[in-house]
Amino acid sequence: MDLLPNPAPLATKLRNTLVQYHTIGDGEWRVAKKTKDATVWRKPSDEFSGYLYKAQGVVEDVTNRIVDHIRPGPYRLDWDSLMTTMDIMETFEENCCVMRYTTAGQLWNIIAPREFVDFSYTTGYEDGLLTCGISLDYGEVRPNFVRGFNHPCGWFCVPLKDYPSHSLLTGYIQTELRGMLPQSAVDTAMSSTLANFYSDLKKALKT
Known about the structure:
One of its GO terms (molecular function) is cholesterol binding. It is built from 4 helices and 12 strands, in the order αβββααβββββββββα. By secondary structure, it is an alpha+beta fold.
C-alpha cells in the first residue's frame, strides 16, 4: 500500500494530462456510441491496453452546478446509478481530496462490483471548470470487491458562448476494471455507461 502522494504536483500533472487529451485531433477518435444526450468516441489508450473514451454533450445548466453534481460530494450518490458508496478518505483543500467508492455490477453481473480509490482535483479551465481524477494504490481492498484503476480521467465543463445557461460537458475516461473480463464486455459497458451518465445527470439537474 502506497503512502498518499504530495497533492500539488499530482494535481498539476493530472490537469496537464487532461488538457493534452482535450487537444487530440478529431481524426484520432472513432465513434463508439451516439444517443440524443451524448456522443461517445474511443481511441487506444497510451496508459494501458484498453481504450481512452471521450464523451460529449450539451447540458442545460450552469457550469458550477453541473460540476457540483459530478465531483466528490453529496450529490453524486443521489443520481449516479453506477456508484453504490462513496467516502472521502482525505481532504487536502476544498478542491482536492482522496475518495473511495464502489460501483454496481454491470452486464448481468458479468462485470462484478468494483472498488476504486481516486485522487480528485477540481480547477478552473477557460470560462468553466475541470474536475479530474486518477486512482491510487491506497487503503485496504474490501472483501467482495475487485479493485479497479482509473488512469487519468476528467470532465471539462464550459458555458456555451451564445447560451451561457447551457454548458458543453466533455469527459475523458480510461478505466482498467481488472479481474478476468472479456475485453468486448468491458468496451460495451463503458460506451453505454458514459451515454447513460449524461441522461442520468440531466434528469438529476432538472429535479
